[in-house]
Write a structure and sequence with these properties.
It is a single chain. α3 (38-46) runs parallel beside α14 and α4 packs across α5 (89-100). A hairpin with a 6-residue loop joins β1 and β2. 55% of the residues are buried. The protein has 500 residues and is mainly α. Helices cover 71% and strands 1% of the residues. The protein has 20 helices and two strands. It starts with a helix and ends with a helix. Strands 1-2 form a two-stranded antiparallel sheet. The chain has helices at residues 2-12, 15-33, 38-46, 55-79, 89-100, 104-137, 142-154, 156-159, 164-178, 203-221, 247-262, 267-282, 294-318, 324-335, 344-347, 350-372, 385-404, 408-425, 431-454, 465-499, and strands at residues 181-182, 189-190. The longest helix is centred in the last third of the chain and has 35 residues, at 465-499.
């Protein structure tokens, strides 16, 4: 492991990799600071630029953008009370009151330092947990891989937001899209009304449509965010002695964020909210939360950034995305011809270890860039929506065309853009569709392979302990959110009956 990590550092120190790391960090800050965009859209937009690029360069850049964009959402949360990402909502609760009291510089400083510590310590935890996970998963056969894919698909209940049923609807749509193409066993076309679909719906154009084009349509409906006149002091002059009461909160929130990030489907938003609540509960000045307490900013930012590194653990070790953005990263790996999962550490060890090294090198870089540009990042919200929409559409169309050098992927992008827009208008989440596009082929292939091995006997799925455990976990993760929803409705009904 140490030898591979040293090799990873050697790869990251190459000039082209360092340049990609720096540029992606800048782009991540800008994407994160633009309300409504977020890391998922940023990663999806960057993927077309990775065509023909060395896989190490591509993945280092995508992960760097992911981490920086997650932090960038805290900038506008503090200065404008407009979180750039969903995970920065809790940051605004205390960050904006601090800014209104004239402590915008300190609030930004706390958010940057907390984010850096959370991401760096999360990277160390990732290095310590991803390899054992992958070594354990090397014992997997076709039945285990099928059960693992089903477990990933069962997380749709968690990705469905407040309505697991809407998540299930999105999953069904994703399954329908995923089975388009040639049957993997006998080569029969399925729902392929044109030869362009024989290889299935192309992943990158679908992602660009779901996230980028649909975001443009939503963006053109709304009003531009107006930047407030907020003076930001020089963050370099802030003494670390002001952190005396914050270190414990940052460390605790980092641990909470990483553990929640490892749980597929939980994500940085849940991590930041839980961490904020724990910080408030543990604080001796809980009454000051929501009124400008720096502990609230530190808790939220440390947690949502450590959750990003946590989401990479199941992605790299098991091939299961820990978040919607991680699902897009899986697509990026597959585009490079690399299969994520336990064999990644055997067949392509340079990928995970270069990611580990890039996090250890890139996070301090992210902190420095964040401190240097503290008074500049907020200016990105002044970009007119019409100009921003035109740029996003242009990148999406060019990226889709470049994927196969034909117009068909462009039509797919535009079609999925309309589908994504309609789904967002009716509050149906998009992440389950991405989950299905990535995991359904894996589930189907290994399911049919298992039946071939057993001669059609489904009892083969009950003959392997790991398979049984994964199937039980899949059933629980799918059913628990529905049962919780029914309990909430029952309690609400009982409350209304008691009030009557």
């Amino acid at each position: 492991m140490l030898t591979d990590l040293i090799s990873g550092f050697a790869l990251v120190m190459q000039p082209e990799v360092l340049l990609a790391l720096f540029v992606a960090t800048i782009i991540g800050y800008i994407i994160g600071a633009m309300p409504g965009l977020g890391p998922s859209l940023g990663v999806a937009l960057l993927i077309p630029f990775t065509y023909g690029v060395d896989p190490v360069v591509a993945m280092v850049a995508l992960v760097a953008l992911y981490v920086a964009a997650e932090y960038g959402g805290g900038i506008t949360a503090i200065l404008l009370n407009t979180p750039g990402t969903a995970a920065a909502v809790a940051t605004a609760w205390d960050g904006y009151p601090m800014a209104k009291k004239g402590e915008a510089g300190f609030a930004l400083h706390v958010s940057i330092i907390s984010s850096g510590i959370g991401a760096f310590l999360g990277a160390l935890l990732l290095i310590g947990t991803a390899v054992p996970l992958s070594e354990f998963a090397l014992q997997f056969g076709s039945t285990e891989y099928c059960a693992l894919a089903l477990f990933g698909l069962s997380l749709v209940s968690s990705l469905g937001g407040n309505s697991p049923l809407r998540g299930l609807l999105a999953l069904c749509l994703g399954v329908l899209f995923a089975v388009v193409g040639m049957d993997p066993e006998n080569g029969t076309p399925r729902f392929a009304f044109t030869p362009d679909l024989f290889e299935g719906i192309p992943l990158v154009p679908a992602l660009l449509g779901l996230y980028a084009i649909s975001e443009v349509l939503v963006m053109l409906e709304g009003e531009a965010v107006s930047a407030l006149s907020m003076k930001v002091s020089n963050v370099w002059r802030i003494s670390l002695s002001r952190y005396r009461t914050l270190w414990g909160c940052i460390l605790r929130s980092t641990g909470i964020g990483y553990v929640i990030g490892v749980i597929p489907g939980a994500g940085a938003s849940i991590a930041s909210l839980i961490s904020y609540n724990e910080a408030k509960r543990a604080s001796g000045t809980s009454d000051s939360f929501g009124k400008g307490n720096p502990e609230g900013v530190a808790a939220s930012e440390a947690a949502n950034n450590s959750a990003v590194t946590g989401a990479l653990a199941p992605l790299l070790a098991l091939g299961i995305p820990g978040s919607a953005t991680a699902a897009i990263l899986i697509g990026a790996l597959m585009i490079q011809g690399i299969q994520p999962g336990p064999l990644l550490f055997v067949r392509n060890p340079e990928i995970p270890y270069s990611i580990f090294a890039s996090l250890l090198i890139g996070v301090p870089l992210m902190v420095v860039v964040g401190l240097l540009g503290a008074r500049l990042w907020v200016q990105v919200v002044r970009v007119p929506n019409s100009l921003l929409a035109a740029v996003i559409v242009g990148i999406s169309v060019v990226g889709a065309y470049s994927s196969e050098n034909s117009m068909f992927p462009v039509y797919v992008t535009l079609t999925f853009g309309i589908i994504g827009y309609v789904l967002r208008k009716v509050d149906v989440p998009l992440a389950p569709i991405v989950l299905a596009l990535v995991l359904v082929p894996m589930a189907e292939t290994n399911y049919r392979r298992s039946l071939v091995i057993s001669g059609g006997d489904h009892l083969i799925f009950l003959q392997h302990p790991i398979t049984v455990v994964l199937l039980i976990l899949a059933a629980l993760s799918f059913l628990v959110p529905f049962l919780r929803g029914r309990k909430r409705k029952a309690r609400a009904a009982a409350g209304e009956g008691g009030a009557a």
